[in-house]
Amino acid sequence: MKCWPLVLLGMVVTLPATAHEGPDAQIRKLNQEITAHPNLIQLRVERAANYRRQGHLSEAMLDLIYVRDHDPSLVGLYTERARTRLALGNLIGAEQDFSEALRRQGQQSWAKTLAERAQVRTQLGTWELAQADFVRAWELSSKPEWLLRAGEIDERFQRWGKASVRYQHGLKKLHGALTVRLALIRVLRKQKSFSQAKALVGELKQGNNLHPKWQLLLGEINNEAGEHHAARKQWQQALSDINQLLKKRPNTLHRLLRARILLALGQPKAAWQDVEQVAKAAPNLPELPELQAQIRHRLVPTTKGTL
Amino acid sequence: MKSFPRSFHLVGLLALASASYSLPSFAQNLVRHPYLQMGTPSSVTVVWTTDTASEGVVHVGDDPNNLSQTFNSPSGTQHEVKVTGLTPGKRYYYSVGTNSKMLTVGDSDHYLTTSPTPAVPMKFRAWIVGDSGTGGTGQADVRDAMLNHVGLYQPQLFLHMGDMAYNSGTTSEFSANFFGAYTGILRHTMTWATLGNHEGSNSDSGTQTGPYYTAYVLPKAGEAGGVPSGTEAYYSFDYANTHFIVLDSHDSSRAVNGPMLTWMKSDLETTSQEWIVAFWHHPPYTKGSHNSDTESQLVEMRENALPILEAGGVDLVLGGHSHIYERSFLVDGAYNTPTTAAGHIKDPGDGKPDGQGPYVKAVGNQAHNGTVYIVAGHGGAGVSGNANHPLMYLSELAQGSCILDIQGNRLAIRNIRKDGVISDRFTMVKGTGLAIASPDGGETLSAGATVPITWATVGTIANVKLEFSANDGGTWQTIAASIPNQGNYNWQVPSVDTNTGLIRVSDASTPTVFDESNAGFKIAASQPEKVISFGDDWKYDDQGVDHGTAWLQSTFDDGAWKEGPGQLGYGDGDEATVLFNPSPNYPSVYFRKQIVLDKAVSAASLNVLHDDGVVVWINGTQVFSRYADNGVDYGSFASQTSADNELSSSDIDTTPFLVGANQIAVMVKQSDGSSSDTSFDLELTLTKINNPGGSGGSSGSGGSAGAGGSASAGSSGQSTMGTAGNISAGAGGSATAGSSTAAGGNTAGTGSDSNPATTPASDDGGCSCRMSSPINTASAAGLVGLLALGHLTRARSRRRRSKPQN
């Protein structure tokens, strides 16, 4: 029994607020802990993070200033201050803090911090530096996002060859990850490497069946390759299959897909009908505005003023 | 012992027996006992860890005694062995070890079951747990409540919502708070997990490193169905006619155009499964210990993921993180922050088949037909919160877990509180369908009593056919061939012993439209019978000889032992047979007795008078001990002094009992060499199985035993869905109890099982009734084990595979 208070103290001292509760509850808990243990500077970093998550950025900065004044060697200070500065719109300060954190951190934390700095650098428009960070983060890890972000910078500057190599490497490393496959197909189309692109789509077959989503894509590649007849045939097959699918599974994603197929087949009015239904059922679908704009563009010559 | 739940007894006793007699020199090498990963229709990965590096070997076969196939992994301490070339939807037995020795034995409890072929509407069950990894009593209580409830009908899948290893998801926390806490379940239940924020402290989705990613073998390349995600952080898999999508809300980008949601959209578009279930850690709707209106992960998952999921027709979304149980109405389109209910509740009913009726959806994954959202963050951590989310039908601040049952076009969820109460239940039906309300599994019915069969109907079904199976669907007897569909029927329960009774209701004109009980119910036609009484004669050896373990077996020659009636002992003056009183005392005295059984046993209990410690074996298997924590060998003294003539009572495992001769062996232990007395006597009460394979009478008349039933005593001892050892088969019951806070102006479900002929083990009364029932927890396991329901397994599989999709 004599040991019990020590055990309790140990728990308070060694355990951060455990994120069992939300930020408000954690802040309340941290307030108590900071009052009880004012010398535990790390607690203020944790409270700052919770303030930031709640949008209380001034309170977060006050805690971080306190930490800087009392223990500037604390590595967590720099990552948290970078995030808070980023939330405040101070991109330069955020980049400096992430850089400082990278200098002080152990290697196991680099990938995440590199990616965070890369995102700041993207916002700053320092693309090459951003890409270098994404590439390094990707090398340290296998998160698809970081590969894709690095590749997108290549694509931004039309470095198709580099992007292609990057994605091919990623596709192998990520066991055929769909997002990387689609990125590679996109780049191969830019490179006019149509047969390679089609082969990559063909690998998405389930048994002998190619989902209409991929048939649409295959048709688009054929079309770009100048194989218009093959493209049309592919799209017609896609339309037939999606119509069958919609009978069985009339969901919004499938309706949206049919709209795209109809648009590819030169039937924007029919596509618009599908999109209108989708807009009623799922106005929040992220790709809806872009598709609506595409269809509007195709419809304008004939139905101007009706949309 | 009294303070532990019964299932714990059973698990503990069998584990002890196993450790003592099956694996005496190997068990210390296992750090994590085997668990199952990445189940597909043709393969399963068996994973375990050892304290020192070695190669890994898995032996696999159709029969636990004949594990004829061998699969290997390279040397290491984390062993991941992919077992391939398997048949879909089939059970295989396995053992693990090295090239030179086994770490587990081939037994009926170590089995793996491959996933059914996708799209096949096979009935299956999943256990849903979140935020459990405390290693505390709450977690154990939640686990045991589930095991008590499901009995034989253990889940095929274990879906964990994250936060499985508090506080920081370290390797040791994983070993203790997840793998240690669920060892008996994990060895035969396919586990699928998502990363919680606490695992995220030491595991990284980017690098796919840390204890979480080390522990789990999850699909990256679409190995288990769905589209390749390229990462174990988020993935999908198929099981029967259901597509599961697992997201990482903690450590992967939640952006609309980020890789995870881009992948998810394609995955949703290309699945052709009937049901879609998605889960991740941070719930989109909650007012528990977290607030979905203010916390970024929760807000982003709601705002970014839900529009895509609902457009793809998701049916059920599960989460954890918030320490509470919350279950929504059937809702759609509530993406705004803060969440409001107006215009987003598709069905304001309770979804209960015995209440306002199931939630109804159209066939196929029609978009925006409605989704039910569940927060299952109540698996072990302390619960808290305001419990007032406007989309929730029920919000309950009590620990527990959920069971998901899917059969054809019917999906059902029940929430099992840690006290055993079923505090919530709902059903969802797609298209025309039927949903049984009761008996739906776990009930105990009295033979000869009249009980209502109740069901809900979706669509128009004029007449229904009612059937009863006494053997888990192996054979069916018609109760009523075609009666007007009124949603209920008074059924006279036949006089038959079964723990696996099922009811099936089908459209009389379209048999493919049907529902059957989610799990078996019990009918106890037989009465308990005392087979050993106090005062009966026992053979005994009080001469201080160490007989090792040979004396436990029936083959041991005890011809030279003395014999006398109970009570046996010395020092109290009340003994019928006075034993030798040496000085100092011998540590142990032996007692043996043989009984012959003409039928299999469905329940067993004993009363044992002892001073000081006592250990009881049936046919070499330890079934009970008291004050024997120092060991059960001859030389160990009792671990504590008993009261004089202390009387202990317990239900015991029925698995060791055999039809024919049974050897009862008892060791009584002194607490030390100077004790002045010792005592022993014992009563054993058994319930024997009456007409095990038969089924009930027809047309509600009951009593005319049918010819059904493919099970027969004395076969291989394999179990159908669970096995003795880590289950306690107490009745679950389908009654709901209204003890919860209702949000949105609704009240929690109210008890629905008021028929006096049933024992609704799921309410408080039922729970206490269950605990004191002479039909013990092990009875179901024992029944199955003894009756060789391997036959039923095969019959069941055939039946299910041939079932047309409805």
SSE inventory with pairings:
The complex is a heterodimer of chains A (307) and B (806).
Chain A: H1 4-14, H2 23-36, H3 42-53, H4 57-70, H5 75-88, H6 91-104, H7 110-124, H8 127-140, H9 144-156, H10 160-173, H11 178-190, H12 194-202, H13 212-224, H14 228-248, H15 252-264, H16 268-281, H17 288-303
Helix pairs in contact in A: 2-3, 3-4, 3-5, 4-5, 5-6, 6-7, 7-8, 8-9, 9-10, 9-11, 10-11, 11-12, 12-13, 13-14, 13-15, 14-15, 15-16, 15-17, 16-17
Chain B: H1 6-22, E1 30-37, E2 44-61, E3 69-83, E4 91-97, E5 111-113, E6 124-129, H2 137-150, E7 157-160, H3 171-179, H4 183-186, E8 190-193, H5 211-215, E9 235-239, E10 242-246, H6 259-270, E11 275-279, H7 296-311, E12 316-319, E13 325-328, E14 330-331, E15 345-347, E16 359-361, E17 372-376, E18 392-396, E19 400-407, E20 410-417, E21 422-430, E22 433-438, E23 444-446, E24 450-458, E25 463-469, E26 477-484, E27 488-492, E28 498-507, E29 514-516, E30 521-524, E31 529-532, E32 537-541, E33 562-565, E34 568-570, E35 577-578, E36 588-597, E37 601-611, E38 613-618, E39 621-626, E40 646-651, E41 660-669, E42 678-688, E43 758-759, H8 764-772, H9 779-787, H10 790-801
Parallel strand pairs in B: 6-7, 7-8, 10-11, 11-12, 12-17, 16-21, 23-30, 34-35
Antiparallel strand pairs in B: 1-2, 2-3, 2-4, 4-5, 6-19, 9-10, 13-17, 13-18, 14-15, 19-20, 20-21, 22-24, 23-43, 24-27, 25-26, 25-28, 28-29, 28-30, 31-42, 32-33, 32-36, 34-42, 36-41, 37-40, 37-42, 38-39, 38-41
Helix pairs in contact in B: 6-7
Would you mind describing this structure in some detail?
The complex is a heterodimer of chains A (307) and B (806). Chain A has 307 residues and is mostly helical. Helices cover 76% and strands 0% of the residues of chain A. Chain A contains 17 helices and no strands. Chain A has helices spanning 4-14, 23-36, 42-53, 57-70, 75-88, 91-104, 110-124, 127-140, 144-156, 160-173, 178-190, 194-202, 212-224, 228-248, 252-264, 268-281, 288-303. In chain A, α12 (194-202) packs antiparallel against α13 and α13 (212-224) runs parallel beside α15 (252-264). Chain A is elongated and about 75 Å long. Helix content of chain B is 13%, strand content 33%. In chain B, α6 (259-270) packs parallel to α7 (296-311). In chain B, a hairpin with a 7-residue loop joins β2 and β3. The longest helix of chain B has 17 residues, at 6-22. Chain B has a 7-stranded mixed beta sheet with strand order 8-7-6-19-20-21-16, with helices on one face. Chain B has a 7-stranded mixed beta sheet with strand order 9-10-11-12-17-13-18, covered by helices on one side. Chain B is built from 10 helices and 43 strands. Chain B has 806 residues and is of the alpha+beta class. The chains are: A mainly alpha (307), B alpha+beta (806). Chains A and B meet through α2, α7, α9, α11 and α15 of A and α6 and α7 of B.
